[in-house]
Amino acid sequence: MSEALFPRRKTKVVRIGQVEIGGGRPIVVQSMTKTRTARIEPTVRQIKRLEKAGCQLVRLAVPEMADALAIKEIKKRVSLPLVADIHFDPRLAIASIEAGVDGLRINPGTFGSKSKLKEVVERAGERKIPIRIGINSGSLEKDLRSKYGEVTPEAMVESALREIKLLEDLGFYDIKISLKASDIQRTLRAYQLLARRVDYPFHAGITEAGTMFRGSLKSVAGLSLLIREGLADTIRVSLTAPPEKEVEVANLLLQDLGLKKTGINFISCPGCGRSQVDIQKLATQVEKRISAIKSSITVAVMGCPVNGPGEAKEADLGVAGGQGTGIIFKKGKVVKKVPADKIVDELVKEVFKLLDENREAEEGNNHD
Questions:
Q1: Quick one: DSSP state of residue 345?
Q2: Rounded Cα gap, residues 343 and 337, in angstroms
Q3: Alpha-carbon span 324 to 95, nearest angstrom
Q4: 297-319, pLDDT tens digit by residue?
Q5: How far apart are alpha carbons 235 and 250 in whole angstroms?
């Protein structure tokens, strides 16, 4: 049902490493490392944390040659596809390609020399390395700012079409595009306009969205609109926070929209005058204990036994806090009562018990 609610625009397919983007494939979650790429050890550690969080594609900043050269060693030690983010210097793009990068993020027009751009494009084509054109409202060309009077969606689209033409004139079509601004309306309108002109896949996001709380809200609001209109083939939540948090928010968004089936669907009530437990503390503790689970199950934490089991009856497992006790229920039916100080441990125990039961049932079906 969710896929029918969020139809995707028809696009070409871009392959970055083993990850396919566009053409109706599932939306890909990506992030960007916040380490200096030349510092191999911390960069590798961060990429591995991103992978554990559910990231599928990682972008690396490549401002200097040392960063480009480091990609070769980083590639040996991680499994996620890597994209080199490069500005102005085609030598860094060539070095990144030679180091084994899986994708490039460039703006061709900033390379200056057409011969240098041609060399980058030819090498990328030989190795089947896609190029993402990244249009950002904060770095729009001066002549377009002058033409439109300000940074408008139309100006962003014209900038993108210029960059696309530079690649197409060289016979290169393995392209994806981003059109990012830090406000939702301008971003959405830019993607809407460009979607009428090209069939390349889109990387979507609200750039420089902000800190963890505000940035998450802005990103979820903007990405939900873009996904609703089929304008997002890969997404990034851009936060002033550790990159793993970007991935967590992006995956939760896709899960809540019904577009991703792995991971815990966690339900908790807001609490009210009927609550007989500290619902905020209880929900936080339970969520922390089960957050790493990748299986698709629904767990509920409710504040009182009056409405709890009924309101969360579709949950695979849940608990409703009572006066000094907790009622653990499964699909709305009470399983057992436990002391208040044992609620978290007992619920988590039941969650893992259910996972084992589901795994055994699945293995039995496979043998059949």
A1: H
A2: 9
A3: 64
A4: 899 998 877 666 666 777 899 99
A5: 7
Are 326 and 246 members of one domain? Answer: no
CA torsion angle for 251, 229, 176, 56 (degrees, to 10)?
Answer: 10
Q: Identify whether residues 245 and 272 lie together within a single domain.
A: no
* 167 alpha carbon, distance to own chain's centre: 27
Residue type, 203: H
- Domain housing 233: 2-256
Q: Is the pLDDT of residue 82 over 80?
A: yes
Give the CATH number, domain containing residue 301.
3.30.413.10
Q: Which amino acid, one-letter code, is at 259?
A: L
- Domains contained in the chain, number: 2
Instruction: Quickly count: other Cβ atoms within 10 Å of residue 106's Cβ.
Output: 27
List, in order, residues 6 or more apart from 12 with CB less than 8 Å away.
22, 23, 173, 175, 199, 200, 201
Structure tokens at 65: 């040659």
d(CA 156, CA 186): 9
Start-to-end CA span in the chain (Å): 29
Angle at 311 between CA 316 and CA 348, to 5 degrees: 35
Residue 284 structure tokens:
């936080």
> 97 and 11, same structural domain?
yes
**Among 310, 308, 342, 312, CA closest to 325:** 342
Residues 214 and 310 occupy one common structural domain? no
Same domain, 206 and 317: no
pLDDT of amino acid 148: 96
Residue reference for tokens 């709380």: 213
Within the chain, strands assigned E span 14-16, 19-21, 28-32, 57-61, 82-85, 103-106, 131-136, 175-180, 203-204, 234-235, 265-268, 298-302, 317-321, 325-330, 333-339
Q: Is the pLDDT of residue 208 over 50?
A: yes
Q: Which of 211, 232, 256 is the last residue of a domain?
A: 256
Number of H helices, E strands in the chain: 13, 15
Q: Do the Cβ atoms of 234 and 17 come closer than 8 Å? A: no
Distances (CA, A) of 140 to 92, 117, 210, 366: 22, 20, 21, 55
